[in-house]
Amino acid sequence: MDTPGGLRAILADPAGAVIGLDFDGTLSPIVPDPEAARIHPDGPALLTRLGGLVGAVVIVTGRPAATAVEYGSLAGVPGVVVLGHYGLERWEAGGLTAPPVHPGLARVRAELPALVSGIEGVRIEDKQRAVAVHTRRAADPRAALDALRGPVAELAAEAGLAVEPGKFVLELRPPGMDKGRALSAFLRERSARSVLFAGDDLGDLAAFAAVRESGLPGVTVFSGSAEITVEADIVVDGPDGIMELLRSIADAIEP
Known about the structure:
alpha/beta; four-stranded antiparallel β-sheet; Alpha-Beta Plaits; 36% helix; 2 domains; globular
C-alpha cells in the first residue's frame, strides 16, 4: 500500500504533527458495558513514546475527559491532552476545565427512563454532561435503536440538546460542539503543520472532515467495523491495528 501524503508529511516533520485519536473502538475495544472499556494494553507506553516524537497527541472523545483519563491510564502519559464530551471538556497536565452543565440534562434524566422502559436490554449511561442510550444488549439492537430515534430526538429538542448517533447508541448532549470543531481549534492552537486522526464511529466523521478541510497535509484512519461505511486514507482492524500503525510511525521517526 502506498504511504498517504499526509503520513509522509508527519514522518518528514514530526515536530509539526498532531496525532488525534478517538477512545472507544480506537484505543479501547468496544465492549457491551461502556464502564468496562479499557485502553489497549500497549496503549499507554506507545502514546508516551509517540508523544516524545511528535508535536502533540490529543484524545478526542465523547466520554467525560476524566473518565477517558482513568480508563486509558493516561494520567502518567506526559503531554497528552484529552478533549472530552466532543471538546466541551479539556484535561491537560492533571487539570480539568469544563463549562457549566447544560440545564436540559435534568429533564432528560427525569424523562428518559420511562421513554426506554418498554424495550428490554436498553441501557442508559449518564455521562454527567451528556446522557447516552445504548441498545447493544437488546434482543434486536438495530430495531431497538430505530424505535427510539424519533422519541429520543423529540425529547432532546424539547430539552435544547443535540442527538449524536453511533453504533447502537444515541447520545443526548449540548449543541454547538463536535469532534471536528474541537480538532480544528486544537490544530490552530498548536500551529500544526500536519495531522492524523483515527476514529471508528459516526461521531468521528466531523473530525475526518476537519482533517480534509484544515489545509494541512493530513491522514484519516478508520478503525471501525463494516456496520459503518467511511472514506478514510487508512483502514485498520480495531485497536490492535491502531497500535500497529502508531508503532510503525514511532519506528519510522526514531533514528
